Records
---
Amino acid sequence: MQQLVNTALGGLTLGTVYAAFALALVLIFRSTRIVNFAQAPMAMITTFIALSIIDAGYSYWIGFAAALLAGLVLGAVIERVVIRPVEDKPDINAVILTLGLFITLHALAAVIFGNRFRSFPAPFGLRGLEVGGTTIRLTTSGIFTIVAVAVVLLLLVGLFRFTDIGLRMRASAYNPEVARLLGVRVGRMLTLGWALAAVVGSLSGLLIASGGLVHPGYMDSVVVYGFVAAVLGGLESPVGAVVGGLTLGLSLSFVSGYLGSELVALAALLILMLVLTLKPGGLFAVAAARRV
């Protein structure tokens, strides 16, 4: 029974991390209609910025805030300098550029920060909580991760459902020509979308690094699992991203705990194939996919 509880709690924490990354993918897709494969190295860069500040003697929270601010700036700059020139071209052009960014940012991080493994501090304790004299697999840092992702989810749902800016961002992504005719500053909305997505991505990078080792490739595997989580819930739905992340995290945790860790990647692939076969738009899709 204890193993079951610990496996579920470990999956919950892991799923929350996947959900944070999936939220960044969903945010940028909803606001720009682009899948950003460079989200992971962008988050990695900002995590190293936080680590550099912390190593310089400043508090964890100053580094945390600096990473989020760096993500905001980095996302805006990338949209303006790299993505903007292909804004009116086919969407595949921007996707290919994000793949190029993936490689470029990896190389830059290796040059600037080095390839060695470095320890990243945790905001709170890493010891499992005591419940009834038994240590369970849920730490204070894990609780912080869960709360942080829940807050981000609520903010994103509020942004897209109840604010004028959220409506303008979605209009700019779906039909920029009509949005311009209605007075929407489409360029600014796309920049804002990239900037906010980079902030959420930076948060996911910090949560993943918490209490572990970081290096330029430490988030590479998260690209795969975060993308599966986003597709599982639906690239249009922030709620779906969280549900997809939690579902994936719990599923992979049970596979690892009871069948073997070597089957985790295969299980993720099977889950992705099953969802794309039965419901291509994701579990929270609200409209049927259009065929051209």
---
Amino acid sequence: MIRIAVVVGSTRPGRRGAGVARWVEEAAGRHAAVVSSEASVEVVDVAEYGLPLLDEPLPAKFGDYRNPHTVRWAETIRSFDGFVFVVPEYNHSFPAALKNAIDYLYAEWCDKAAGIVGYGVEGGIRAAEHLRLVLAETKVAVVRTQVALSMFTDIVVTDPVDLGVVSPGERRQQALTTMLGEVVEWSRALRPLREPAGTPYGGGDLTRPVPA
């Protein structure tokens, strides 16, 4: 079975990302791949892991994690084959909390697929573009189809502190269905490239010289 995590990328109190993630999870539950038990979907909320600003003494590529919060986060991410990142746009980019969470790990991200659901005044487009660049460095293959939810038409908000009601139109629903299918297919295709759980740096040994 292909395991897909819907990653909530905002940790701000009053964030609307949790509602967007629930919409993704509910829609995924109706997807043919999930109905047929070919794939499963689970929400992973970065806010629940209490990750401080990166505090590991060694670079993530060594895979030598020293802190309990890092080990817990690594075990969670390692268990999935692909991801759907739910991200708002903050000042032309995605939230620092998600960047920090990505930077904690390396091998656990490698050779997996991902899709992006952005939301905001401009649909989170610029946040998604920046996230694609970061994920490329961790060898995550981001599918082309993207979902962009507008705060004007897809999330009904009555005041600035209202969590809002996520109610995207048919076009957004279709884009999400297409994206989920791509994530499942790419996750399956990349499976032979994934290294065994716990193998640092894609199976390499950083203590040995690299052959010329």
